[in-house]
Amino acid sequence: MIGRALRVALIALPTAVGAKLAAIPLIPDGDSARELAEKELSKPEYQEAKPTLIDQWARAVIDWLIDLLTPQHAVDLGPWAAIVIGALLIAALIAVLLIWGRPRRSQTGRTGAVLLGSADDRTAAQLRADADRAAREGDWIEAIVLRYRAVARSLIERDLIAPAPGATAQTIAREAAVPFPAEGESLHAAAVAFDDVRYLGHPGSAARYRALVETDDRLGALRPQALPEAVSA
């Protein structure tokens, strides 16, 4: 019995050993390993993570500055090294501020074509001309709407307000009252006239249009008060 069992075990041994060896991953040779690595690195997630040319340039500049600031190079370059490096850093900082500095309010206002809920990139002068044309034709609703748009556009062009694309007529009136506090009531009345004919369906009139024109003319002639942002600067 023992001998029979031993023979069975010896017969089964190669099969078990073969299964164990099959489970062990093969170690690729040099060419296979290179192909596997190239295939893995060609996947989109690796390509997207590759540094751009700008990243490589910035890294090269940083490495150069770090290498330049080492004690050995500082001794080789002499006392002028710190002055030269400081001047380079200041010049780079000025360039960054000039290129990516905070945009002025006028740039924000002029790039946005949405004004009072509609896409409109006409200048204040063009809006006034169109409003006067509508008034001559007796279309008081269109005249009032366009004239108030002209008021808003004129203030934007003068860098006095910077309304958001979704700003309402009353929001613009309140913002415009900051540089023109004495015109707060007239600006509010102008915004009410705009809302009445634009959204509430009220009829316009020559009197309301004339009042809006007078407000527009006064704002154009008045010198605005200093804005809080300018005072703090």
TrEMBL record:
Presence of keyword Cell wall biogenesis/degradation: no
Region forming the signal peptide: 1-19
InterPro entries in the record: TgpA-like_C (IPR025403)
Domain of life of the source: Bacteria
Taxonomic source organism: Microbacterium azadirachtae
Alphabetical keyword list: Membrane, Signal, Transmembrane, Transmembrane helix
Domain Protein-glutamine gamma-glutamyltransferase-like C-terminal stretches: 147-216
The keyword Lipoprotein is assigned to this record: no
Protein name: Protein-glutamine gamma-glutamyltransferase-like C-terminal domain-containing protein
TM stretches of this protein: 77-100
